[in-house]
User: Fold this.
Amino acid sequence: MTAEPTGRRAGSAAEGDAAWFRRHLLDDLLPRWLRAVDCPSGLFMPQLDRAWQPKERSHATLVSQSRLIYNFATGFRLTDDERYRLAVQRGADALLAHFSADEPGVWSWSVDESGSILDERRSAYGHAFVVFGLAHAFAATGDERYRARARATAHALRTRFRDAHGGLIPTLERDGSDVGATRSQNPVMHFFEALLALGHEGADEESLRHAAELAEWVIGELVLPDGILPELYSDDWQPLGEAQGGRTDIGHQFEWAYLLSRAVEVGALSDAGTPAPWVGGGKGEGGLPIALGRAMIENGLRLGYDTASGGIWSPATPDGRILHRAKGWWEQCEAARALHRYATRHGDTECDGPLAATIALCRDRFVDGEHGGWFMRIEPDGTVPSTDKGNEWKVDYHVVGLCLEMGW
Assistant:
């Protein structure tokens, strides 16, 4: 049985667009991933060429394994197709068997096709996705082991990875020492996302409280007065300047906007109180989280939106200059998802035009009409530098999220 879409709300995409995204997810994207990577071992090797054939050298990371678990859990939730549930179970069991370190909630970064460890370092970003993937695995299977390990991993992130300033250390050596990687908001954002998933999919109220605490830290310590969230920081969480490699990732402004709205929806954040004076903070309905999300969308459009052709350029310098006018698949997905959500749930009709243009760009330029799936990047001259359908970073988790927002 295929899940029926919820009622379309005023200002939502045309029903034709919604139907297209439902077909795209259930008839194209998820079946192709299932055929390409599901196997008895449960180790999902994501390196795929344009025709979805495995590439010569393959490995799996915490991120690719966990994101594909989420993809297949979504497929099971929407279709009740047992093949997706079995893929979730095999993938989650392989994660536990091959990536797990000696300590509860601690994981190595990558394994080869045989399950042997390739990189033992501990990645905060990867651990966040373990929480995310196992929360969805629990929801799909009811296997309590997955929820327990997700909780243990969240605890490890709050303790082993937490630095003296309240942020996350990006990468640890096996012995727990800091490798010295530049601080970034990105693992923090995905830990927030993972806590929302564990709280909602895993029925874990404590995780929702931890998500609220993390959001409070980000809003209080990292967000600038104009609503911009810089990407990279010094060890004491001061934004890096351009000379030090500092930047604003436009796609992450939209991604945070979506997550703030999602946090209100699942009860992690309250949308009460007086909005702070961010850009757009006094416009429309909603309290502080939605006001900040609205400001992030406005900043993303102001800095990175292509008014001529639709879509998002990224990243930008700290003073707002676009560094490279290429368009990546994930930035388009996050922009369209946030634009649709704020148009439909929060009454921001000014999102409608950029949303329509960005959806058109995705369907016309990013979707591979011959072999299915999405290309990763379009250069300023219109060329596609790589036609591969998968790698350790691209398993279409962003596309799945967009399809869910647009189609259901």
